[in-house]
């Protein structure tokens, strides 16, 4: 219970603030315990309320109300901030709770995938850099599965020209594929042959 004649919070007087604390402690603790169900949390929040009151003592204006009302306002804000922060934390935990953490094997698999994709990107870049005639023959043979003779017929060129273009296209891809990671590179070259 607050004292009959509550005192204002002293802004720069440690001894005065100690008296203010003693005078209002039970009232603030009661306010907190009516809102939380943990003794440790109640003690922490009560301490936080008095720290906020000490830090904000210079803002107290007696014309706006009694110190008890001022402390209740601070108490409400501190408790609200605590529960708002706890709610944000629970939401963050809920968002990631469905995601499992990566173990070493998962990390290795992802790194291998990144390396493989890097090689594919290099081949895609080399493929895009090919001239249209080279790319057309390569695509018809490798992607569409035509023979060199069938690709030549489709393009309206001689089989010899198609073979030369295919050879040049493969050579460009081999040069582009010389990386430390050759698994995908070898697979693509085998498919191109």
C-alpha end-to-end distance: 91 Å
Shape designation: rod-shaped
Alpha carbon gyration radius: 38 Å
Total count of strands: 0
Helix content: over 70%
Tell me the strand percentage band.
Answer: under 5%
Poorly predicted spans: 1-6, 179-185, 187-193
Structural class: mainly alpha
How many DSSP H or I helices? 8
Q: Write down the secondary-structure element order.
A: HHHHHHHH
Query: What value does the average pLDDT take?
Result: 80
Query: How does the major sheet shape up?
Result: none
Describe this structure in words.
The protein has helices at 14-33, 39-55, 67-97, 104-129, 132-143, 148-155, 159-176, 183-192. The protein is rod-shaped and about 105 Å long. Helix 1 packs antiparallel against helix 2, helix 4 crosses helix 7 (159-176) and helix 6 (148-155) crosses helix 7 (159-176). The termini are far apart. Residues 1-6, 179-185 and 187-193 have low confidence and may be disordered. With 193 residues, the protein is mainly alpha-helical. It contains 8 helices and no strands.
Highlighted features:
8 helices, 74% helix, 0% strand, disordered N terminus, disordered C terminus, 193 residues, mainly alpha
């Amino acid at each position: 219970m607050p004292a009959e004649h509550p005192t204002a919070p002293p802004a720069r007087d440690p001894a005065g603030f100690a008296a203010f604390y003693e005078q209002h402690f039970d009232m603030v603790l009661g306010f907190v315990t009516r809102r939380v169900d943990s003794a440790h949390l109640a003690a922490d929040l009560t301490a936080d309320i008095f720290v906020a009151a000490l830090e904000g003592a210079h803002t107290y204006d007696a014309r706006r109300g009694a110190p008890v009302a001022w402390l209740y306002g601070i108490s409400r804000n501190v408790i609200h901030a605590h529960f708002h922060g706890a709610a944000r934390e629970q939401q963050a935990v809920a968002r990631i709770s469905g995601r499992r953490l990566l173990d070493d094997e998962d990390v290795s698999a992802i790194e291998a995938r990144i390396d493989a994709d890097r090689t594919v990107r290099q081949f895609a870049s080399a493929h895009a850099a090919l001239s249209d005639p080279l790319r057309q023959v390569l695509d018809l043979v490798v992607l569409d599965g035509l023979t060199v003779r069938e690709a030549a017929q489709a393009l309206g060129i001689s089989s010899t020209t198609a073979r030369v273009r295919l050879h040049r296209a493969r050579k460009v891809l081999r040069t582009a594929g010389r990386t430390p990671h050759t698994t995908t590179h070898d697979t693509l070259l085998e498919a191109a042959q």
